[in-house]
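User: Hey, quick favor. My workstation is busy. Could you predict this chain's structure for me?
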Amino acid sequence: MNTIWELDFYSRPILDEQGKKIWEILICESPLKIDSPLDALFRYVTYCPSSEVNSVRLKAALEEAIASADRPPGKICFFRQAMNNMITKACKELGIPAQLSRRTYALNHWLQQRLTEVYPQHPGFQPGATPTVSFAETPPQPLPDALRGQKWAFVTLAAEALADMQEWAIDFGAAFPLSLAGISSEATIPGVVLFSSRATPMAAWMSGLELAFLKVEEGATARLLLETGVNDRWTLASLSKPDLQAEARDFETAKQQAEGVHFLAVQSSPEAESFAGFWLLQEVNIA
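Assistant: No problem, here it is.
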């Protein structure tokens, strides 16, 4: 399994002695398993003045991080579209693929921690200067005809059942420790299962989308959406029937109660004991 790093290069709510914004480069290793030990994951942090905000400075920081890590990254994920060109350029020069993604769960958790515990200790701290990142919404696209499921269902799993996820037969998927979201073993995790005779091709296709989260869109054309990348959306199912709309509202309520954590699974049939795909997801505000 390739090592994935999550990266952020942006200004922080702190000013230097000249009253200029201080920028920061944060790099952390992605926890790729439900039981990944968070305290063993690689982290790197360095500040830089606004005069050094460029791909050359970022490349130098990445080289320093790689030199101090046990293993280099196979891919680097980041969520800020505004920094796309700079991050992509620095990574390309190092031969590392870079990808816009909302699956930066460890990085987001770390940023929230630094916003409450680290930056306020700085003499140049500026309260309220860090707005939540927003992502533009694009019109939902239909799934390719060959990849549409014949059936689907809203389901739930006990959080403690996910502890054995590493032992499950899963062809494609991704996970992260529930402790990142503050989920207890007693919690209930909602999800959606897609059933298709083409389960494996469907799961393989989804694995290349950088899955973000599932979301119910209400209104005249109520539907279940799959959000991917930073602004792509796909229609998984229509929610035209009142009973489905009620189940959809229950799904969203359960998702909120689980700190945004939920899952998407793909199986060949309801009787199948293995998964063509299983992804643990989280809808979360990014700082």
